[in-house]
Structures are given as structure tokens and as C-alpha cells.
Task: structure prediction
Amino acid sequence: MALSDPIADMLTRVRNAANVRKARVRVRRNGVCLGIARVLKEEGFINDFLSVDDGKQGEIVIDLKYGDRGEMVLQHLQRASKPGCRVYKGFSELPRVLDGLGISVVSTSQGVMSDRQCRAKKVGGEVLCTVW
Result:
């Protein structure tokens, strides 16, 4: 069955797994979802991710991260740009999430990156989601 919004599906699966304190979650693999997982790992919101080939589309196995006392590292994970209403921003207009404590994940012409990387490289793009 085809998904109309695989990014929202990924974010929902990760959010639900984090809410019930799962150690890992499996999501469908595509290029943008791999980019989002890479950004979440680089920014310290997840431990690791692994791309698994299952003979079809493939899966991404994401190891979720929790604090020393079991508190959630991913407090908020929300889709910004949707298929019906895309949100594009220049690098100077990118939102600062919680004054730098959170990130925006942006799809640019140079790949998927965080808002900090976008400001450093001076590129804008489609704001996919916000995380804190």
C-alpha cells in the first residue's frame, strides 16, 4: 500500500515508540527519511539508526535515546511542511526552535540538514519538521 506522506508516517512511528518507551522502532526507508534519521543522530536525539534491506522497499531501524533516569530525549516531534501546504524558508528566515535547544530539519538542494547547518552554509529549503 502506498503512503501519501512517508515523512509524517516516520515521525508518528518515532513519536509513538518514544511515548511508550520502546528501545527501537522500524520505519519504511526512503531518501528523505534516511536524511532525517541522520540529522537526528548528529544532533543527539537518537542513539543510532540502521538501514536494512528486506527485499522490498527496505526499513530503517532507529535506536531511541533516553536519559539516565529514563526521561525522553525526544520531547516534541512535529511535521511542519505537509503535502497540502509546503513551507519554504530562506536561511535567514529559518525558525530558532526554543532559542537553539531544538532543531528544524530542512530539505535543501544540498540534502537534508538541520537549521544550524543551513545557516552555516547559507542555504534555505523546505522545513520538514521541528524537534526538541
Notes: The helical segments are 6-19, 31-42, 115-121. The longest strand covers residues 46-52. The longest helix spans residues 6-19.
